[in-house]
Amino acid sequence: APLQTRRPLYGPLPLVTTISGTDSSATMDYHSLQISGRKRLSRGLEFLTSYTLSKTLTDNLGYYGSGGVNNEGAYWQNAYDRRGNHGPAFFDARHVVSLGGYYDLPFGKNKSWGRGWNRPLDMVLGGWNLNYILSLHSGFPVTIQSNDRSGGQLARGSSRANRYRSLTYTDQTIDRWFGTGNTFCLQAGLNDGSCAYGEPVLGTFGSSGIGTERAPDFRNFDLGFGKKFSLTERNYFDLRVELFNAFNHTSFGPPARNISAPATFGFITGTITSPRNIEFALKYYF
Questions:
Q1: Per-residue pLDDT tens for 225-248?
Q2: Cβ proximity of 252 and 280 under 8 Å
Q3: Which CA distances in Å does 14 have to 6, 9, 79, 153, 154?
Q4: What pTM value is reported for the model?
Q5: How many CB atoms lie within 10 A of CB 41?
Q6: In the predicted structure, residue 120 carries a pLDDT above the cut 70
């Protein structure tokens, strides 16, 4: 039947079309194992490390969503089935590792090495310190989508594909993040055993769940060096050299995920980190 006559309020209010609302209906669960260790400052060395193994499930992204991830949008696929959107939250990073620390390098006057250095040599090589921050986390969830096959029932949400089996990741690159050796069937309803995902039959919602795949992981290492150049007991220069993304590692953004667009499906075209940035600072204390 025509879409308009199939609307729930067509009988009493035939001129009413799509009604959208914003409310706080959601269920969210967070479970985690958190481990941390700290070495307090001694012999010039201090660091803190932590690891989190976690799982966050929700059935509603929230109206404003989030940037830099493959989120689900503000509405459910099926407006009458909120639980159908229950799955990993868009920020669900299963593994998170962080390490930060400070090290007063043992070179120079009154240090383990260089006690006998003359003043010019100590001014150049002595008294340096470094600090560092390492951040790692596994990839965020990716939901495989398709063009709307619901027959007009998808008023505001995102349409998901059918899921028939788990993906086999072979020859994975940023140009084919979902690898080779997988078949994505565009013929609606086809399930001959070769397809991992496929187009839903017209008039139906996709059977795939939320967050069945994962985007690339994140890695970043910041490093800083510092040194004080003493002029008198109270006056000195403080030199800082900061390297953001010190190893110039690229962390990629999420892949294109709509199987109805095979020309771009699985392509990654953006990054979520900036190239290495070096900053110098010189401050005079008096």
A1: 999 887 887 888 899 999 999 999
A2: no
A3: 10, 7, 20, 17, 19
A4: 0.83
A5: 12
A6: yes
pLDDT, one tens digit per residue, over 249-267 is 999 999 999 999 988 999 9
Instruction: Give the other-Cβ count within 10 Å of 214's Cβ.
Output: 20
Cβ contact 132:225 at 8 Å:
no
Measured between alpha carbons, how far is 136 from 51 in angstroms, rounded to an integer? 10
Q: Are 49 and 98 in contact (CB under 8 A)?
A: yes
Q: Which residues sit opposite 263 in a β-bridge?
A: none
Q: State the Cα–Cα distance between residues 10 and 17, nearest whole angstrom.
A: 8
Phi and psi torsions of 6, nearest 5°: -90, 0
